[in-house]
Amino acid sequence: MTTNGQKLSDPHQLLNTLLQLREEVYQEGREIFDHWCPYIDQRAFRISALNLAYYLALRRRELRPLQTALMPWGLSSLGRAEARVLANLDAVITTLGELCNTDPQSLPNRPRLQTFFRGTRLLNRQTQAVFGEEPLNRRVRIMVTFPTEAATDYEFVRDLLSHGMNCARINCAHDSANEWAMMITNVRRAERELDKSCKIYMDLSGPKNRTSGVMMDEKRVGKGEQILLRRDPPQKSAPYPIQVSCFLPEVFDDLKVGHPVWFDEGKLGTIVEALVPEGALLRVTHARAKGERLRPDKGINLPETQLTLNALTDKDREDLDFIAEHADMIGYSFVQEADDITVLQTELRQRLKKPRDIAIIAKIETRRAVENLPDLIVRAAGQQPLGVMIARGDLAVELGYGRLAEMQEEILWICEAAHVPVIWATQVLERLAKKGTPSRAEMTDAAMAQRAECVMLNKGPYITDAVAILDGVLTRMKDHQLKKMQQLRALRSWEVEPF
Q1: Which of 13, 25, 53, 245 has most Cβ atoms within 10 angstroms of its Cβ?
Q2: What are phi and psi of 334, to 5 degrees?
C-alpha cells in the first residue's frame, strides 16, 4: 500500500487505498499464519493466531496518513483494530463504499456484529482460563507477591483475599517447598472461609544472573573506575581492587568487548573494556555522583549479549515437581525464544496427565523476548492457556528507560491482537506497599493498568492497604477505560460526588 501522491481527501481514492491495504494484509497475514499452523493444536486459538498474523501485516505499514484521512468521514481510524483486524477493515470499507455508491459486489461483506466482537469474547475467555472468573466489581485481577510470612500468618493471607487479591504469587527463587505448601494451604483455607477464589501463580527462578562475591576497599564505586567481573570468587589483587563474581560464569562465553553490563536494576552501568583470563574488565559509565554500592545477590543485565543459556535450570526442573502438582499458573522467567516454550511444555508432559490445564505466564524481560514475542505467543497459546507479563524492571535495563513506555504499548497491542491476557508488573504502588503512602505518579500508573488483565503488586509491610486502594482504583477506572479505549461514562466531576 502506498499513499504518496494520492489524494486521500477524495473518498474514492481513499476507498481504493483501503481495498489495496486489505488485500496486502490478507495475503501477508495468511503467509505468516501458514508458518505457525504446525504449532497450533488448540482449535480456538487458530482464530486468534490468524488475527495476530493480520495485525503484524497491518502494522508493518505507515498508517498515519490513512488514519487522518478517515477521521473527517466519521469512520474508524483503525486505532482500535487489535482484536479484530480484518473485521475492522471490512466495516470501514463497506461503509465508505456506501458513501461512494460503489457496487457492493466489488467490496468485502460487512461483518456481522457477532463476528466483529468475536476477538473481545476470545480475550475474555482466555483471561478466564488463566486467571479465573472475573471479579464482580472490576475487570482487572490483582496478583500479590507473597512474603515468607504468608506461610505462617493465616490472617495476613485472609486479609489480602478479603481486600481484593485474586492471584497469589509464589517466587520460587525464595523459601522452600515447605513454605510454599504452607502458603497454598492458607490460600485454600481463606477461599473456603470467604467463598472467594484465588489462583496460585508460581514463578520459576530461571537463569537469572546475579552478583555473588564482592570485594572492594571503598564503600562505593564511581564513574570511570574499573571492576573485574570474575568467573571465580574474588581474590585480593593489586591491579584489581574492585572485584565481583557472578552466579552464571557461562555468560563469559558470549560476552564481548564493548558490551554493556548493568548491575542492580540499572543503578550501576559499565562497559566491557577487555576480556582477561579471570573474566571481564569493566569500566563504570553510569553511577550517581556519590557512587554506587556493589552488593551480593544483585541482578546483572547484559542487554546486548546473545546469551546461550538453558531456559530451565536444574533448580527449575526440581521445582517443577512441586509446581506441576500445586500451581494454576507457571511463571516462565527469562524465556527468550519459541523453543524455550517447547522445553517447558515437554517437562510438563512428563509430570502431568493433562499438561494443557496449567497456564504458562511468559515473562517478557529481555530484548530477545520482545523481538520473538509473536512466535512465543503462538508456541505457547497453541497448546494451552497463556498470559504475558510485562516485567518492566528488567525490560527498562535491557531496552533503556527511554524505550520502556513504547515497548510496553507494543506488547499490549500484540497480546490483544492474539487475544492473550497481560500482567502489568514491577513497582506498581511500590511506595504505598513499602512506605504506607503512594506517590502521585504511581497512582496514575495503577489507573493505567486498566489496559491489562492483571496487575502484580510486590510485597511490603503495607501490602494489604495497597491491595485495597488498587481495588478501588480499578473499580472506578472500569467505567472510564477498556484496554486502550476510553469509555464515555457520563461525567459528574463538577458535581458533588463521593469518592
Answers
A1: 53
A2: 60, 35
Q: Point out which residues pair with 390 in neighbouring strands.
A: 364, 424
* CA 380 to each of CA 200, 230, 454: distance values in angstroms, whole numbers, following the listed order: 19, 36, 19
Rounded CA-CA distance 39/222 in Å is 50
pLDDT tens profile 138-194: 999 999 999 999 999 999 999 999 999 999 999 999 999 999 999 999 999 999 999
Give the relative orientation of helices 338-351 and 373-381 as an angle to the nearest 10 degrees: 20
Cβ partners under 8 Å of residue 398, min gap 6: 301, 303, 365, 366, 367
User: Which tens digit of pLDDT belongs to each residue from 467-476?
Assistant: 999 999 999 9
CA-based nearest residue to 158, from 432, 456, 434, 464: 464
All three cell numbers of 16 = 481504493
Give the side-chain half-sphere CA count within 13 A for 23.
10
pLDDT digits (tens, 9 = 90+) for 412-462: 999 999 999 999 999 999 999 999 999 999 999 999 999 999 999 999 999
Q: How far apart are CA 298 and CA 287, in angstroms?
A: 15
Domains of the chain and CATH, by start: 11-116 (no CATH), 123-207+310-484 (3.20.20.60), 211-301 (2.40.33.10)
For 17-53, the pLDDT digits (tens) are 999 999 999 999 999 999 999 999 999 899 999 999 9
CA–chain centroid gap for 130, Å, is 14
Q: What's the CA gap between 22 and 35, in Å, rounded?
A: 20
Please name the helix (run of DSSP H) or strand (run of DSSP E) that holds residue 169, with its range, or none. strand 167-171
Give which of 360, 331, 366 is closest to 345, Cα–Cα.
360
